[in-house]
User: What shape does this take?
Amino acid sequence: MSGQLLGLFSSTTSIKCCDISVSDLKVEYLVNPLAVDIPGPRLQWLLQAIDHRKHNLWQSAYQILVATDTETLLQKNTGNLWDSGKVVSNQSNHIEYKGRPLSAGQLAYWMVKVWDQDSRESNYSTIAYWGNGLGSGSGGGGSQWSGQWISAPNGLQQEALKQLADIDKKVVQDHQGLLPMLYMRKQFSLGQSVSSSSLSSRGSRKVKRAILYATAQGVYKVWINNKLVADHQLSPGWTDYLKTYNYQSYDVTELLLTNASTTTDNTIGVLLGTGWYSGYIGLQKNYAHYGRQQSFWTELHVQYDSGDREDEIIIKSDQSWKVGTGSLMYSDMLHGQLYYEHLEPKNWRSTGFDDSKWPEVVARPVDDSKHLALLADPGVPIRVIEELIPVAKWQSSPGVWVFDFGQNAAGWIQLRRPTGAARVQIRHAEALNPNGSIYTLNLRSVLATDTYVFTDTTDAEEEDTDTVEPHFTFHGYRYVELVGYPDGEPKLTDLKFRVIHSDTPMLSKLVTSDQLVNQLISNIKWGQRSNFLSVPTDCPQRDERMGWMGDAEIFAPTASYMADVSAFYTKWLRDVRDGQSPEGGFSDVAPRMVDPYDGAPAWGDAGVILPYTMLTMFGDHRIVDLQWPSMEKWFQYIAAENPDHLWTKRVNNNYGDWLQVNARTPKEVMNTAYYGYDALLMSRMASVTVNRTADVLKYRQLHQSIAQAFNREFVNQTDGRIAGDTQTGYLLALAFELLPERLRPLAVNHLVDNIRAHDWHLTTGFIGVGYLCPTLSEFGRHDVALRLLLQDTYPSWGYSIRNNATTIWERWDGWTRDKGFQDPGMNSFNHYSLGSVGRWLWQSLAGIDNNDSNGLVTGGGFKDILIDPKPGANLYNLTANYQSINGQIDSSWISNGTHIKFTTTIPVNTRATIDVTFIRNETIHRNVGSGRYEFMGQLNKQYDRIINKLIF
Ligand code: RAM
Assistant: This one.
């Protein structure tokens, strides 16, 4: 019947047409990655309903074809690398490639078709591809790398500094340790580098694909024939350079000059900066943390159009490269950039530049004897994601212009190049002094200054004359101060804020009828954007910017609702594993800084919590397997010194509920609770991963033993009071399942009493805040959670918003009306930690969750969804969607105070339980398949009370 109808609706669709289409193919979470160093990469796709009015659509089978070529094979439906055959399964992600092994660098093209619930076949998807990595997971064997680490000969940068001292002695004296950027170049011709045997056939062979692989000890940018190979920033990103380097892969086919005569030269130009490797590093406050000498590594692999695979390494980093210096006297990650235009070697990235005065580089082989791994980057690049223009400007004193961009974020200024000679200085700040000048005290020791010394435009290199921007620095700011701009009054359009972050697609949305809540969501989002910079940092502005583990574990669920952070965290979890000490201690920050301490409780635990988050949010079982040995080690590490199950030893920096206010949660309460939580998560993870039946029991028992110790030591077994009597104490005990059932209602009452006693304010710090609203909602006090959400007096999220916050502050009292700015020693206005409430907005308010997220019976990844929205307060309207790995889930409601209409959309190939509890006289509990569902009715009593301030 439905088939016939479909035939009537659409003349182009055949009666037998499948109900679903396939799109968004990815490999290891990435769109067409050029290098994947994992055996058995996992494939995924999304399914869409062709007719959105239909329900209960799912995939009953799939077939994957993988081939070495598209035209001759895949388009003829032949998979010479892998033909999965028709696999009866509804799995559409995490499907392991099981075809022929790929050689290093080989490209595999693939497509997939599916059968719907009625066994009707879809068309094949469009073709996607991935490239096999060069090391193929071997961890980097020295012998397999043709490219070498190349660096500058001793003295080259010192020479440039001497030159600088002639111009600006003070800069050199003040900043011992800053180093000039290196310029590296190599001219090459495709014709000259092929072996003599293949020379004759050269004319007939077309380059099919050219892939450039590159990485650095430092940060780099690459141009081929004066064109940037990609829009990536700050590559290769930050890893634990004592152990791992990620190389990036770029398709440069279009950039190479291949059609002209064989003598045509191509030129590769590389700018090499200090970055995390040898630039100024926060907290440690030193330069050259990993090494003082920056090095670059590259290989350019070319594949020809001649059927079978044939590869040539056309160029590689070796002794034959030249190196010089130029206009970039420094471009330090934290401090900023100093640029002297007249020192720039003109056209150095183009063929024909005379580099005879540049010395040769020093080359050394990639050495695996130190167990250094060179691995394909599993993460996403940092990019300029958005540009902001200033919303206001003023002079804080004569000639000192301040610009306000209206938004705190991370990035840098792109400046219109002035016409005349000038020394222009840009300083960055998050806040203002009362007199309208910029407030920079909280940046601590960083300069956060970009300086340009321009010559006359007539001398300037042509293509760079319009705008200038720094290469290897970033700042966290909302305001900038501009001094020395020569063309009269600077215009708003002379400056652009180039906003950067790791390119995690941020597609999920949540909008409500309440402006304060919307601003909170915006602040959380900008906190995430500003701090997802290769690693999840604490803050983007002061001399810190490190991968703090406590911040990361508490925010990870929120981050995973807001954006697709799957690849980002996959990359970072290697940094976490790399940072584990031989005894088993995870670190406080990953990449681990050379630090005598292992991770503190709730910080080191990120090593367990992050894989669990990946499992629940993305259904990723493999990351659990990968992390399992290190997680077990972490338990041995804690257990070794805490045999009584109270986590009182090996607490290292022992931060406690960091930056809590008006409360003192005993550290041993928090620490022991976290030990229990770790055990709980281990048992849950073991329950859904293969071959871990014994571990389920082992960790469940451990959780019980810890719970017993916790109760014995900290909980009054009669009245349920927990030592310290703080919100965080009750929250952790409830959320981590540490209390016997009979004590739970008592603990909830103590929690609510405590909130009431603080006049309906929170007292939680970094850790407690993550469980505040979720636990209240879970234990029947959603009304109190809403009250805290909408609170706008100190301390609350609303208080910062009422005081113009556009990001989440590090501290509840970052600025107060009574005291002004907090101690500048630690006062960031862009820390995401206290924004961990974000997950509750999606999970509880919008009600989009995994079904049985705790027991993980369903394996995570929103394949089995729970829709259980909890409307309330003056939120008469909410529209949310979450872009899950299994497709977009929608949830929205609109209410007029007496009636409510609720709509939800469940993606194809998933199922959901919908619980509607807010309609009078009706308790709806329905198990459904895909499609759109709508419920309408009179609001029940409970919500009459909660929806109290109606606007229409
Ligand atoms: C601060 C960091 C971070 C926090 C640690 C304990 O310096 O900013 O956010 O996790 O301390």
